[in-house]
Write a structure and sequence with these properties.
Bound molecules: S-adenosylmethionine
Radius of gyration: 20 Å
Largest sheet: 8 strands, mixed
Strand content: 15-25%
Order of helices and strands: HEHHHEHEHEEEEEHEHEHEEEEHEHHHEH
Shape: globular
Distance between the termini: 44 Å
Structural class: alpha/beta
Number of domains: 1
Number of strands: 16
CATH topology: Rossmann fold
Number of helices: 14
Helix content: 25-40%
């Protein structure tokens, strides 16, 4: 029922559009965030065992504890978490560091309510909009991958952009020539001119990064930490990745068809971390560090957190060691997930120890 209502809402948008089609990003945004119907805005469980996928804060409380430790020197100015999911990261961060003001900005009303229930009594506040001036640390775990990207391909010696149209058989992709504008400029620089090469360009994620970076305080220590799956640009758009990185998740199964199950499945793309670093630098922030999740967590004290954990019994000990393995193993999340930290000069000084793990030369 819910999927049908979502399909009707998208069909109505397509029907009222001049070209009888909407851009892929508009389609993806509706599927994920249409009020009450989108994947993140309707009431279904999304994260964890009962949902469709799991994230690092859901896997282990040691993830949030390690972040609290890694940013202890700058979090006095406050913590803002964007897109807090079930509230798991806030809960674990708070369990070791109750000092900073912890605020959450969440676009989904349903998730915001769930977070408020999960974090009752933990001194967390919710924001309706981003503050004009940001101090302390901003955390985004798997948020950029949940923003709406465009699909672009190179075909017949030209760049084309995907639009979505619909009929009684469902939704379909229509390719239209892309000849000007920001998306065309990005495509020309990023998408290899190989016949049929198809990939994503996420201008919305770049705009979000630029907005955050442009609001970093000029006088107080301030940084942003993006954690997500993705690559530097040359790896993202490498010639052999001919079908891009778009992925859908439904009940712990991954597939590549975003046009089915509207509102019922997650749609996501990997992050072009070079684009995010460029957007931040253009907005006058500095790149402080870029590394794999494994390097970041290990240098941030993950193993100390593990050692300090009071295991209730042997099966908990085995489970928690297993979750640490998941977070850092190169065959699980350790290498595919990256941590990009950008900030102002004061934050760069405070976090100078991160130079040891920094691989921003790869961006
Ligand atoms: C894949 S979930 C990740 C949830 C959580 N951070 C975690 O790791 O478990 C993406 C989250 O980002 C939120 N979101 C997406 N775009 C956002 C934006 N522009 N501002 C704030 N939250 C956003 C979604 O509603 C959802 O809570």
């Amino acid at each position: 029922m819910h999927g049908e209502a979502m399909a009707l809402a998208i069909a109505a948008r397509i029907g009222t559009s001049l070209a009888r089609s909407i851009s892929f990003a508009d389609f993806m945004r509706a599927c994920l965030y249409e009020p009450n119907l989108g994947y993140y805005t309707a009431g279904a469980a999304k994260l964890g065992e009962a949902g469709d996928f799991t994230t690092a804060p859901e896997i282990s409380a040691l993830f949030g504890r390690t972040l609290a430790n890694a940013f202890a020197s700058i979090s006095d100015g406050g913590v803002i978490e964007l897109g807090a999911g079930s509230g798991a990261l806030a809960k674990s961060f708070r369990s070791v560091n109750k000092q900073p003001r912890y605020r959450i900005l969440e676009v989904s009303a349903d998730l915001r309510e769930r977070q408020q229930r999960a974090l009752a009594g933990r001194d967390v506040a919710w924001l309706d909009t981003l503050p004009q001036e940001i101090a302390g640390i901003v955390l985004l775990n798997e948020v950029l991958d949940a923003t709406a990207c465009e699909l672009v391909r190179f075909s017949d010696e030209r760049y084309e952009q995907a639009f979505v149209s619909g009929d009684q058989n469902g939704f379909h992709i229509q390719w239209k020539a892309l000849t000007s504008g920001a998306l065309f400029d990005a495509a020309k620089h990023r998408i290899p001119p190989i016949e049929g090469y198809t990939s994503e360009i996420n201008l919305e994620a770049e705009a979000l990064t630029a907005t955050l970076a442009s609001r970093l305080s000029a006088s107080a220590t301030a940084a942003i930490c993006f954690i997500d799956y993705g690559f530097p640009r040359r790896e993202f758009y490498m010639p052999s990745r001919r079908q891009g990185t778009l992925m859908c998740h439904y009940r712990h199964r991954a597939h590549a068809d975003p046009l089915i199950l509207p509102g019922l499945q997650d749609i996501t793309s990997h992050v072009d971390f070079t684009a995010m670093a460029e957007a931040a630098v253009d907005a006058r922030a500095q790149v402080i560090s870029y590394s794999s999740q494994a390097r970041f967590l290990l240098s941030g004290g993950l193993l100390d957190q593990l050692q300090a954990w009071q295991f209730a019994n042997e099966s908990e000990r085995i489970a928690i060691h297993g979750s640490v393995q998941k977070l850092v193993s190169p065959t699980e999340m350790g290498e595919l997930f990256k941590v990009l930290i950008v900030g102002n000069t004061l934050a760069a000084e405070q976090l100078s120890a991160l130079a040891e793990i920094d691989e921003s030369y790869r961006l």
